[in-house]
């Protein structure tokens, strides 16, 4: 087998990298973390943070390290999971490079600081990505489009929306997360009913948030459930349910 691999013209050496699709919410805007590449290929273009996996390093360890080196963010504190593997020929002009993309979500993430081969790191509004106003290096545009849809789908079937909230939160804050990520306005009463009817999604803390004006609001924390039952489904302009895939989800570690 090894002799055949060495002799075959159809087999070429490949390299393994990790890339990170990281989302947060700032000022009621969904933001994605990007870096400006400081070297070729695609020098000066925005890209997802990431890089080569080192010898004796797991994929997750490589992802956490690259995030710290290129953006100054501690990935060990984030909801971090694999999104998928991308290996189309020609995706990297340096040769056959297979990348494993990670999806990360976090609340109130810090201002990123560029390092190593990233000239700078910055948060960009997802609306710029969707409007085509950001040209990204490699195939990162396509990866981020898939990552964004995965985040939106996960809000339907899992409690991942709480990753964008604090330890305690109001249902209004939770509804804002859904509205920002889905890009849809949600009826407050219907949203409250669906959240409270989804077994184990949230649980009351017994405390209240006291606004400067207006009525106090009950505070909640994430409940014990990860999969939502029943799920919270997006509205669809076609009148059909926006998501048809069943839940195959893993709770964050």
Could you characterize the architecture of this molecule?
The protein has 253 residues and is of the alpha+beta class. It folds into two domains: 2-154, Nucleoside Triphosphate Pyrophosphohydrolase, CATH 3.90.79; 158-253, Arc Repressor Mutant, subunit A. The protein is 25% helix and 26% strand. Strands 1, 2, 3, 4, 5, 6 and 7 form a seven-stranded mixed beta sheet that branches. The protein is elongated. The chain starts with a helix and ends in a 31-residue tail after the last strand. Mean pLDDT is 89; it is low at 237-244.
Q: What profile does the largest beta sheet have? A: 7 strands, mixed
Residues in helices, as a percent range: 25-40%
CATH superfamily of the largest domain: Nucleoside Triphosphate Pyrophosphohydrolase
Averaging pLDDT over every residue, what do you get? 89
């Amino acid at each position: 087998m090894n002799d055949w691999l060495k002799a075959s013209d159809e087999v070429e050496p490949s390299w393994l990298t990790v890339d990170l699709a990281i989302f947060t919410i700032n000022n009621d805007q969904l933001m994605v973390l990007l870096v400006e590449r400081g070297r070729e290929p695609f020098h000066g273009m925005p890209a997802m943070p990431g890089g080569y996996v080192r010898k004796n390093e797991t994929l997750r360890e490589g992802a956490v390290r690259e995030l710290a080196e290129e953006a100054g963010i501690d990935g060990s504190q984030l909801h971090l999971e694999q999104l998928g593997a991308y290996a189309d020929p020609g995706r990297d002009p340096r040769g056959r490079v297979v990348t494993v993309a990670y999806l990360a979500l976090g609340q109130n993430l810090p201002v990123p600081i560029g390092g190593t081969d990233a000239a700078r790191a910055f948060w960009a509004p997802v609306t710029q990505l969707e409007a085509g106003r950001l040209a990204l290096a490699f195939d990162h545009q396509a990866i981020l489009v898939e990552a964004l849809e995965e985040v939106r789908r996960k809000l339907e079937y899992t409690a991942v929306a709480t990753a964008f909230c604090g330890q305690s939160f109001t249902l209004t804050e939770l509804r804002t997360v859904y509205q920002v990520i889905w890009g849809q306005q949600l009826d407050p009463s219907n949203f409250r009913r669906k959240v409270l009817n989804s077994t184990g999604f949230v649980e009351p803390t017994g405390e209240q948030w006291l606004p400067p004006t207006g009525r106090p609001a009950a505070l909640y924390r994430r409940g014990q459930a990860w999969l939502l039952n029943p799920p919270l489904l997006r509205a669809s302009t076609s009148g059909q349910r926006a998501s048809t895939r069943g839940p195959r989800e893993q709770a964050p570690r």
